Amino acid sequence: MTAVALLALQALTNLSLVPAAPGLPSGWTLQRAKGAASPAFRVTRAHTLRIEAADAAGFATYRLRAPLRPAAGTLLWNWRTSTPLGTATLRQRARDDAPVRVLVAFADGRIVFYSWGNREGRGEHFLSWTGRSRGILVLERAEDADGSWHMERRDPFRDYSLVFDRAPAAIVAVGVSADTDQLKGRALAEVGELSWEPGTTP
Question: Region 181-202: what's the mean pLDDT?
Answer without folding.
Answer: 95
